[in-house]
Amino acid sequence: MDTAIPVNGEGQAGIFIRARERAERLRETCRARLCVMDARMRTLSAEPEEGAATAEYAVVLVAATGFAALLVAILKSDAVRKMLLDIVKKALMMGG
User: Fold this and answer.
1) What are φ and ψ of residue 47, in 5° steps?
2) pLDDT in the model for residue 3
3) What pTM value is reported for the model?
4) At a CB cut-off of 8 Å and minimum separation 6, what does 7 contact?
5) Are the CB atoms for 8 and 14 separated by under 8 Å?
6) Contact indicator for 80, 74 with CB cutoff of 8 Å
7) How far is residue 27 from each of residues 4, 30, 45, 81, 88, measured CA to CA in Å?
């Protein structure tokens, strides 16, 4: 087996250099992913109820918006508008 191994200018075989570079990239990628996973785990263990509180606020906001829309629909009706105007007129006449 007289297979020639390419050698770079420093006298090292190119295949080993590429393998070492690839191993270094993989190690850096693994380290970065482990750091992200560690940060996520620490965040989840620190505030386990945080997501639940946010979901509760969202449900309350949706309910409040629906109630406000219902009030607007009721107040736009002619009967309710007339009743409210009558109440305001009586209140102004009593004060004057």
Assistant:
1) -130, 75
2) 65
3) 0.35
4) 13, 14
5) yes
6) yes
7) 29, 5, 27, 72, 76
